Amino acid sequence: MALDVRELECFLVLADELHFGRTAERLYLSQGRVSQLLQSLERRIGGPLFERTSRRVALTPLGKEFLTSLRPAYAALERVVENAREYAAAAGGTLRIGFQGTAGDEILRAVSAFQERNPNCRISVCELPLNDPFGGLRRRMVDAAVVLLPVAEDDLVVGPVFSRHPQTLAVCKQHRLAGRDSVDAEELAGETLMAFSGPAPGYWRQAQAPTQTPSGALIHRGPEVATLQEGLSLIAAGRGAMLICQPTGTNNRRADLTTVPLTGFPESALAFIWRRGEETPSIRAFAEYLT
């Protein structure tokens, strides 16, 4: 049987006032309506909650038991509603999100779903330099960011990890590995991979452009690049190769280069990150659409 919150509210006020007139005044109802709500609740429960005489109103033993159980439950329900109200009010304004490379389908779907459910919050997106995944957050240019893993920064929180894909090797059409069905990581021994300039930490640059194969063979460092397009242009010019994930290769097709599936290295993945201690309702809400 469905609960009627108005009946419960009426019972709680009458239990405080023990007077139908004062209860009606507090609830902005007529005394007749108060009586109707109470009678409906008593029928729903199956027993009298108050003893009524011309001189007094008092709780019955059933009413006292019901009151003891109802007060904390009703208070918890009020907190739920208040929390939801605060959450809805806070998920407003503008949420600035940075991303590296290309905003893929997962990101665009999350933006669309978030905007539909949170019309009071506008999402603003901007591209982050490939060689500086964390700088935009630290300079407060963005509120959160989608970046390539790994992330091991004490001042940043790693939220949902998504878009896991195998690595591919981007090479020019004339490269010796261009026609292969796949390439093993060990076959990169002696090859040249584009390196990353700028402030990205060493562990992150090493993950994107390893200088050794899994067995320890040397991979040469190529020209340093700051953006994906810089790297692709140098690859097309025959200056080296570059590790990119499958979706990035698909979204950046060029007639002068190709991508070959690569095995032996960890898969590529993206993470949604933000500044530690500065998680907002909007950030939490957007993160839910990336899981």
From TrEMBL:
HTH lysR-type domain: residues covered: 3-60
InterPro entries linked: LysR_HTH_N (IPR000847), LysR_subst-bd (IPR005119), WH-like_DNA-bd_sf (IPR036388), WH_DNA-bd_sf (IPR036390)
Pfam families registered for this protein in UniProt: HTH_1, LysR_substrate
Superkingdom of this protein's organism: Bacteria
Keyword annotations of the record: DNA-binding, Transcription, Transcription regulation
Family as reported in the entry's similarity comment: Belongs to the LysR transcriptional regulatory family.
Protein name per its UniProtKB record: LysR family transcriptional regulator
Native source organism of the sequence: Kribbella karoonensis
